[in-house]
Amino acid sequence: MSTRAFITGVSGTELTAAEREFIRSERPWGFILFKRNVATPAQVAALVAELRAVAGAADAPVLIDQEGGRVQRLGPPHWPVYPPGAVFSTLYDTDSALGLTAARLSARLIAADLADLGITVDCLPLADVPVPGADAVIGNRAYGTSPDKVAAIARAVTDGLEQGGVLPVLKHIPGHGRATADTHFKLPTVDTARDELERTDFAAFRPLAGLSMAMTAHVVFSAVDPAHPATTSATMIAQVIRGAIGFQGLLMSDDVSMNALAGTIADRTRAIFAAGCDMALHCNGNIEEMREVAGQTPELSGRALERANAALAARKPPQPFDRTAARTELDALIARANTASA
Predict the structure, then answer these.
(1) What is the C-alpha separation between 180 and 10, in angstroms, rounded?
(2) Tens of pLDDT along 230-240?
(3) Of residues 116, 148, 184, 331, which has the active-site annotation?
């Protein structure tokens, strides 16, 4: 069955009648879960199964933002706490191998949690490189301030997810680290020169350009396109994301409903596809907004369909794994990082 080129959230822990009808009629490619959708493991697994059943697609991707730290949709009492990216950075500075091991273990454990529920995609890793004075929205989520270190830790996170049978989504391409505003509320403009962006922000993404999916940044880079954020900039997508960085996988927008984007939800959705994104992402579960997104979303076809199919085909079965031993090892490494940063 054909699908439309968007990923949608839903409003709660169970589907409403309106949501079931929307999914059947509008045929989203995938779904994304948030804390409002989470109560217990059994409930989440049932919701995931129902989303796929209503969509009529057993392999429909179900996404979640499960990073650790401040961004963790699954948490206590049913799921463990995971460290923010800065913990891996601290360990890396002490011993690079330990930092990479901790990053991989954390992602592998997260993947095991997600696989238990039928969730197949995690919006991770980040390759954002923060700078002094930037908004705290990235903050300790980042893996450091050196592009080489950020890329290395992001690769370890990717490996952990993939070993657990979960697909990664690289974010926020081509970089959110310099943003001076939280894009949930306001559009930030970065006025850094192009050559400096190439050496720092963009450089962290280049070693990860082979990943099968990435999410855009709602950030204006005035040296490339002073009028549009990357998400809705044809120049940024063609010249930087597909060009200088070399990413050729499935490119999805960050959330359409974030206030960094201008215009109506329909206007934003049209602009996302006009710029060259393959997939629109809408997160808040507002059914009227969901209908606006669907109304402006094309059938998934052509190169976007090829990229989407390639992304799903990249998911491999989980490798053998001792969850208890991995958690013990990760906890020891976290304790070491905490001692190092004290």
Answers:
(1) 30
(2) 999 999 999 99
(3) 184
Residue 91: CB atoms within 10 Å: 26
Residue type at 62 in one-letter notation: V
322 catalytic residue (yes or no)? no
Instruction: For residue 216, report the phi and psi dihedrals to the nearest 5 degrees.
Output: -75, 165
pLDDT in tens, 56-111: 999 999 999 999 999 999 999 999 999 999 999 999 999 999 999 999 999 999 99
The catalytically annotated residue of 128, 254, 255, 278 is 254
Q: Tell me the residue ranges of DSSP E strands in the chain.
A: 4-8, 28-33, 62-64, 66-68, 71-72, 121-122, 167-168, 170-173, 189-190, 213-216, 220-221, 225-229, 250-255, 279-282
Helix, coil or strand: residue 9: coil
C-alpha 255: how far from chain center: 10
Coil/strand/helix, residue 3: coil
Q: How, if at all, do strands 279-282 and 220-221 pair?
A: unpaired
Question: Quick one: residue 69, left, alpha or beta (phi over 0 = left, psi -120 to 50 = alpha)?
Answer: left
Instruction: Give the contacts of 202 (CB within 8 A, at least 6 positions apart).
Output: 174, 175, 240, 244, 245
Length of the chain: 342
Q: pTM of the predicted model, to two decimals?
A: 0.96
184 given a catalytic annotation: yes
Nearest-angstrom CA–CA distance, 173 and 219: 10
